[in-house]
Amino acid sequence: MLNFLASQFEAGLENRTLNVYRSALSATHPHIEGYNVGEHPLVVQLLQGIFNSRPPAPRYTYTWDVSTVMSHLERLGPNEQLSLQQRSRKLAFLLAITSAERGSELVAHDLRIKRSHPEGISFNLTELTKTVRVGKSCKTSFHASFPQNKLLCPCSCLREYEIQTQAFRPESVSEPNKLFLSVNNPHKL
């Protein structure tokens, strides 16, 4: 086992891959000296040494300039003049940039649970998300308004998006009413 993992490391495989191999071997091989194979002190020591000698590279090695996107959104003009596709993309970006939420959490926004406040808009997420476990209270998402510039205000964009998509939304308040709809007919989720 040690020789196998060491040879795979020397072949250039990453730590994550080696840990998957360790788990697979541990699940299929009998115990060694009373330990699961993957928990044997020599295996643990080898993988710690591998990690220290070649730590994983950061997932993202570059950044992008938010002001470039913001300038583009301003050049698009008023929300009322945007197509459904443009407004959907703009709204998704503005909501994402004004919160620290995952994409799956933005998609979970439901208009039935939207609350308007003088300083912005909040959504109580009704579904479990990746960061919320069973038994924990669901997350509240808040998006601050930006009254200094209506072209970049997520609340203004959201209001216009709701107006533009009203005809495609369910009439019953008991039906789910996800914020984001498809930009293609029939405009459902």
Mean pLDDT: 88
Q: Low-confidence spans: pLDDT under 50, at least 5 residues?
A: none
| C-alpha Rg (nearest Å) | 24 Å
Total number of strands: 3
The ordered string of helix (H) and strand (E) elements is HHHHHHEEEH
Question: What does this molecule look like?
Answer:
The structure is a single chain. The protein has 189 residues and is mainly α. It has two domains: 2-53, no CATH class; 66-168, no CATH class. Helices cover 41% and strands 7% of the residues. The chain has seven helices and three strands. A three-stranded antiparallel β-sheet has the order 1-2-3, with no helix packed on it. The two termini are 48 Å apart. The model has no long low-confidence stretch (mean pLDDT 88).
Describe this structure in a few short sentences:
The chain is mostly helical and 189 residues long. It has helices spanning 2-10, 15-28, 41-53, 66-75, 84-97, 103-107, 154-165, and strands at 114-117, 120-124, 140-144.
Topology:
Elements: H1 2-10, H2 15-28, H3 41-53, H4 66-75, H5 84-97, H6 103-107, E1 114-117, E2 120-124, E3 140-144, H7 154-165
Antiparallel strand pairs: 1-2, 2-3
Task: Quickly list its features.
189 residues, mainly alpha, 2 domains, 7 helices, 3 strands, 7% strand, elongated
